TrEMBL record:
<keyword id="KW-0547">Nucleotide-binding</keyword>
<dbReference type="GO" id="GO:0045892">
    <property type="term" value="P:negative regulation of DNA-templated transcription"/>
</dbReference>
<keyword id="KW-0678">Repressor</keyword>
<dbReference type="InterPro" id="IPR005144">
    <property type="entry name" value="ATP-cone_dom"/>
</dbReference>
<keyword id="KW-0805">Transcription regulation</keyword>
<dbReference type="Pfam" id="PF22811">
    <property type="entry name" value="Zn_ribbon_NrdR"/>
</dbReference>
<dbReference type="InterPro" id="IPR003796">
    <property type="entry name" value="RNR_NrdR-like"/>
</dbReference>
<keyword id="KW-0067">ATP-binding</keyword>
<dbReference type="InterPro" id="IPR055173">
    <property type="entry name" value="NrdR-like_N"/>
</dbReference>
<feature type="domain" description="ATP-cone">
    <location>
        <begin position="49"/>
        <end position="139"/>
    </location>
</feature>
<dbReference type="Pfam" id="PF03477">
    <property type="entry name" value="ATP-cone"/>
</dbReference>
<keyword id="KW-0863">Zinc-finger</keyword>
<comment type="function">
    <text>Negatively regulates transcription of bacterial ribonucleotide reductase nrd genes and operons by binding to NrdR-boxes.</text>
</comment>
<keyword id="KW-0804">Transcription</keyword>
<comment type="similarity">
    <text>Belongs to the NrdR family.</text>
</comment>
<keyword id="KW-0238">DNA-binding</keyword>
<dbReference type="GO" id="GO:0008270">
    <property type="term" value="F:zinc ion binding"/>
</dbReference>
Length: 156
């Protein structure tokens, strides 16, 4: 592990604890060269998921892209980073629970939208407008009306 400050590779573990519902280990480390403390995470390496993109190309699933999508949608919203990270974990778990070696990018987008709609409606609309590639204001109004209708259905 390289120190983020001096790039030295010698560090000692100061503290270890389970994280992410026992799926990862969080380690506090201290650089033996400069004394800087930093945190690392170890995760279980799972079999790779292959994503089939809209253009038919394939690439390995990258959780960081899902997390980036959440962060962009939730930008300037008062949502703690830990909550966003948990939702990204939920998306990955949902996709892995499909028990398919290949998933479509559509599966990922729908899973993200399912998480966002219960997290923050503004973030949901932001993500949906990009994911669904809205061409005009009417498409945006449709999604807003559906949100209002769902809210009204839940109040009855």
């Amino acid at each position: 592990m390289r120190c983020p400050k001096c790039q030295d590779t010698n560090s000692k573990v100061v503290d270890s604890r389970h994280a992410d519902e026992m799926n990862a280990i969080r380690r506090r480390r201290e650089c033996e060269n400069c004394g800087t403390r930093f945190t690392t995470f170890e995760r279980i390496e799972l079999s790779p998921l292959v994503v089939i993109k809209k253009d038919g190309t394939r690439e390995v699933f990258d959780r960081s892209k899902v997390l980036d999508g959440f962060l962009k949608a939730c930008e300037k919203r008062s949502i703690p980073y830990e909550v966003i990270e948990k939702r990204a974990d939920n998306v990955e778990a949902t996709l892995r629970n499909l028990n398919k070696p290949e998933i479509s990018s559509n599966d990922i987008g729908e899973s993200v939208m399912n998480e966002l709609i219960t997290l923050d409606q503004v973030a949901y609309v932001r993500f949906a407008s990009v994911y669904r590639e809205f061409k005009d204001i009417d498409q945006l109004m449709d999604i807003l009306q559906n949100l209002e209708k769902g809210k009204a259905d839940n109040e009855v």
